[in-house]
TrEMBL record:
Family: Belongs to the ABC transporter superfamily.
Origin species: Microbacterium ginsengiterrae
Name under which the protein is recorded: Energy-coupling factor transport system ATP-binding protein
Domain ABC transporter: 7-239
Amino acid sequence: AEPPAIVRARGLTVRRGRTEILHGIDLDIPAGSLTAIVGANGAGKTTLIQSLAGVVPPPRGQVTVDGVDPGRASPHDLAARIGFVFQNPEHQFIAHTVFDELAHGLRLRGTADAEVHERVGDMLARFGLTDKADTHPFLLSGGEKRRLSVGTALISHPGVLALDEPTFGQDRARAAELLRLLADVRAEGTTILLVTHDLQLVADHTTHTVVLADGRVHATGPTAELLATDGLFESAGLRL
Ligand code: ATP
């Protein structure tokens, strides 16, 4: 049997201007899974993951993350349930040093200085950024920026980590390094949800897949089952 869902959507409908982009999505993301959202350009992947993570205004229909509507959760509560990593990590950087970037969320909710230093120190070490603590986030390399954005999302220990195209623009070695890191995060019990164009990544690293086509769920289930179904990805406009 499937594990219980940690992220659920029922009738999730999103409009932008006069256009309806997502048309009543029903979805259950199993707790503990590494789930990919795939689909052709414009299928609605980014809109879907942002709606599930509560980073855009509440859509029509119902979304819950660990039982709570992310669109109505306080920023503090939301950060402890689901962390979000933008396709372009720079979009989320707000501080002038790597240390302060990681510390920001903790300080906002009044975490004591000693604990901030301990938790930021742990994240810096874990993501290979210890000697970059005083560097401006914009001066990091692409891989370092990505790791900083993942660390920032994880510092509140969320149950779900959501990432939009985390390997975008990275070579194979960088992408593999990030996937190893995500596997470690998952091994600690965090559910991982990501958007990707990379079907090799899907085949090699995910447990479950959501195939979107034209704002609807075309297919969803264990990745191995979907891959074994003839023509399933092709009929959503994807090439294996
Ligand atoms: P890609 O793979 O190209 O990144 P995607 O599957 O992530 O695409 P979305 O970015 O979610 O798709 O966009 C889905 C559709 O909604 C697209 O046709 C896009 O042009 C449209 N769209 C997204 N945001 C807006 C907006 N703010 N206003 C109008 N249309 C939008």
